[in-house]
User: Fold these one by one.
Assistant:
Number 1:
Amino acid sequence: MNKRFRGGLSPPLFVFVSLIIALILLPSLFIVTKLFEPATDNWIHIKTYLLENYIVNSLILVISTGLIAGSLGVFFAWFLSHYKWRYGKVIEILLFLPMAIPPYIAGYVYGGIFTSFGTFDRFMMSIGLNTIRIDILSMGGAIFIFSLCLMPYVMLVTKAFYERLPKNIEESSRILGKGSVKTFFFKLFCL
């Protein structure tokens, strides 16, 4: 006879899940315990010279990536859910492809393509054109890579929302004289 806890998990499964959760939380708990120890020379150096720059760069990266990935995801979701093209499914699959590539792998790939004597430079030299320097290993490059890789997640959720949205919201806005652009920005984008 298999007894169950109130939550519905059997004892061996509960122990297994608890161990997995403990392993996931262990690094965070280690960091929290280190907060209460005396500061070392390394931490003082980081706090004095590096921490402010790290925080500013992280905020720039997060805010810029969120704005760009959000804007592109909403834009593509709107067009995929409201308009039908000849190769619409192919376009949709191609827009979801960056989801399969982690951002750090995409960063290495784009770094190999756009660095000096990378694939892009060699191609430009082979056709006799001057090389164009694109610094993908910078803050702008990181924002580009993260936005590209995170945009499909925004698009997936937003597209599902737009497809389930009642059509009468859009129709009533059109009846009131709003065009498709005003309907999108003032009615549907706000939802």
Note: The helical segments are 11-34, 41-82, 88-96, 103-114, 119-126, 139-164, 167-175, 180-188.
Number 2:
Amino acid sequence: MKHILAVTLSACIATINASGEAFTDTPYDETWDRLLRIANIAYCRGINEFAVCASSYQPWDDRKYDDSASSHPYVFHRHHPEWGNTGRFWDYQARCAALLRKGSPVVDLCVYIGDDAPLKTFSYKLPEIPEGYNFDVCTSDALLNRMSAADGLINVTGGMSYKAIIVQDRTHISPQAESKLLQHSEQGATVIWCNKGETTEDALAKAAIAPDIHIDSDNLPDSKVLFFHRTTPDEEIYFVYNHSDSAYSKESRVRTRFKTLEYWRPATQERETIATDDNGTFSLNLSPYESTFIIARRR
């Protein structure tokens, strides 16, 4: 939804960004490394700015009301024992946010969440999304008033486009919404009817919609490789995160016309050229809970 609404944080019209409330009620004994896992998942959902909405104002040195013994312990204040070591945490956020605000987001799939009230993204209704694809969600307002089909794509006023729209399971669809979806299909767009028994994986294969990035992880809530993709005229920017306590090492490919690929490591600022074969295949190696940028660009 955030990309459909074209939420913009900069003066550049082509840049679509999204801000999210972050780290609220983080307990006093939380570690910065575990907080980074929350941040990395958010980056892979298209968030590129965090708003820390609660930080203890603590002007005194002789009173420490916000500690492990308080009724509401919280990690974000200057008397926390690890506060002096937070520089790398904020530097990491700055590097990631800077790259993830460049260009425009690339999202292949849009999930229509129907007319049910309340309009929320219920996980039990969401279709199973194969690895290598990202998705947005939309409501009836966007479907009926902001979307049109052309050249096999679902285009949205504001600049976004999708390769397919998915009707999630157990979803109430108004006659107007169903008519619009059928119209998109007749105009050549891919509509996947999960509410009528279609599976996303089979429908994407039938429509020859290839993954944006080739990933083959465990694809479990606590063990999977996530990503987000943004594009500019001169480069493709992939943020990739291994959300697992096991290392990941498998062959991968990204969707790009550029031949030069590099790893940019936001935690260390290291850059490394990626060796690829003639098909653009390369080895993607990530330590547990490690993230990296894959940058494809002109030579």
Note: The first strand starts at residue 19 and ends at 21.
